[in-house]
Amino acid sequence: MIEIESKEHFEEVISSNDCILVDYFATWCGPCRQMAPMLEDVDGPIAKLDVDENPELAQQYGVMGLPTLVLFKDGEEVDRMTGSQRKRDIESFYQC
Fold it and tell me: Catalytic residue among 13, 20, 21, 32, which?
């Protein structure tokens, strides 16, 4: 699990991975906390982005609800899911 620290770090992370899932979350978000253990079990690189610490990235990518999972391939967004999800749905979504 990669913790995004800044906009520059975010750009570096999504551009250096062929395929990566970004979890936009907030520490106060109940569904985000509920999904966290499921994400740790998902196979593949995952980056966590706290929207309270990086509001400009949440705004730039149009994140309106939490949690939001965004799939990036070759540095470009290809799909997203918003709201609490089941582990099997996350695994189906995260096909690279």
Answer: 32
